[in-house]
Task: structure prediction
Amino acid sequence: MNLVSDLLGGFATVLSPENLLYAAIGVTVGTFVGVLPGIGPALTIALLLPITFSLDSPTGAFIMFAGIYYGAMYGGSTTSILLNTPGESASVASAIEGHQMARRGRAKAALATAAIGSFVAGTISTIGLTLFAEPVASLAVTFRASDYFALAVLAMVSVTALVGRSLVRGLISLSLGLFIGLIGLDQLTGQARFTWDSMQLFEGIDIVIVIVGLFAVGETLHIAARLGRLPETVAPLGPTGKGWMSRRDWSRSWRPWLRGTAVGFPFGALPAGGADIPTFLSYTYEKHRSKNKAEFGKGAIEGVAGPEAANNAAFSGVLIPLLTLGIPTSATAAVMLASFQGFDIQPGPQLFENSSTLVWALIASLYIGNLMLLVLNLPLIRVWIMVLKIPRPSLYAGILVFATLGVYAVSGSVDQVLIAYGVGVLGFFMRRYEFPIAPVILGVILGPMMELQFRRALTVSNGDMSVFYTRPLTVALLALAAIAVVLPYLPRLIAGMRGRSAERFAFGEDD
Amino acid sequence: MSETTPEPGPGASEVDAPGPGPKPARTPVGPRIVGGVLLLTGLYLLWEAYRAIGDDELTIISPRLAPLIVTGMWVLFSAIYFVRQLVSPTADYPVPGPPDGHVDTEDEHTASDTVHDPIDWRTPTLVAVLLVAYVLLLEHAGFVLSTAAFYLGASRVLGSRKWIRDIIVAVVLALGVYLAFTRLLDIFLPEGVLPL
Result:
């Protein structure tokens, strides 16, 4: 079969000693940075971009990326469990139960169910990616400009509507991102927009600068404003020598793992996703279905196993729209897209034909990265705890150095670093007043894409707007975007009809 | 839009009901300022976008259309936000009650800070000033010197009081990163005044 030989080819590429080393470095560095409180996967990849750019082959770089991503995600859940500071929105659900378990001396079981659940979910969903990516890509070849426009609208609107507490604040964040995306020269005509005649702005504001500014600088300033009020104590691991998970833990974990995967992967694969919604869905489901309902809120292992699996499965799912359509649906996917473009590789339907070796190597390295993570992480847990115990002043001073270094190394310009700082100040105020960050990132990266496809579609149709409402696929996608705006209110509406007060779970998102 | 009705969320009403609670909810003034600044900035940008049309004809595929739409969105949503802050700020930022009732931890409030908690403005301002000084020095004094100096200053501002440890870390970090980037990764960093 073609698929099998492609995948085996991928493994053949990855299993060279050099590339295995890249994968191991990626997993370790990713976990190390991901464990640092307040740093999520998107920032981890953005900060480590300069290192991967210096590798000769894009293949090596992407193998490292796969490791970094999984590592950063696992590091994030370690921090959530032991310190109760979720570094990204997708770990919020598992921070609730995981940290409670840790406080009750069951940290090891929580860490283990997160790690094994991530492995199970990662592996199953990578199989899903292997099976579905190429069919979706061949389907996507038939997509027209108007479909891409609708896809971009859908991705942006759904993330804005489904993440965070307030739709208005989400839409303001989105407008901000779209505005940043407009700065620079117009892609089609080369006309300057919002550049105020400054040469530095002509090339636009790079997504890496936005991410480092919002996440690293913004987060550090936000922390600096609340130094006295941060959780400091790392929960103890519990008695040494005893096993990680008891038989009972296993029997309570495996169903949530599988259910989490089943929710996470399709949600991630939709061009509307990200990992936040599936993790929360999984948490709610486990909470309502569990026989140990009373334990929820006090450290129920199902509440860690399910969301962690969903989180990991969603990531592999997110790769489907990213690789086959070139549409990122989370901040992390947006950085991945930026890094692809750094190597002059344009994800999209043609990717599987033009760079098939690279794609299959990336997919194969997802399997390897997952396995490595499982093998490396639990044994290394004491190292990660030491990382968690780095004094806060040293840690955040260091993060600022690396943020500056990252932007300077990528751009080679002091002005760009200053722009990143400016974005950081913006990020500080956004955090303070609870404006979600993810819509900014998606606005910056999807806005120009959306405009380009919009104008392309109209150029083809000679300015006839009907292209947007006569083609069924376009209409369906735009309708989905409209539904996404209404969806957050559905639980409340349904609950209202049943006469119960609604419980709308809102994420303090950060991914 | 999402919370125009008084937030029926868990906790909030329980605090408000029995007279003056432990933390009397004062109207936070920050969101109003933010709303005002957002609205003014949006109006300025909208005007810029409008001015940029100039004598061109505004067609549907003109590069001048998107700026108008985006800044128009900005103005619209920040106006909604601003008005809501003026009318009822607590609708957008509910005063935190006991979180969900089922979490019985004493350190819970640390995980979810809200606009109602006072913050320290001095530290982030100092950090921002140090950052700007750092990057302005970067190309003149060189990476190693400016990084070491910034690290020392920033960790001090962020609360560290252990000079000796910080100095050691600062020097090792600055030198280590410089050597790793320039020698191993072949990425340029300004060497500055030090003969490296």
Q: What stands out?
A: Residues 107-140 of chain A form the longest helix (34 residues). Chain A touches chain B through 82 residues (CB under 8 Å).
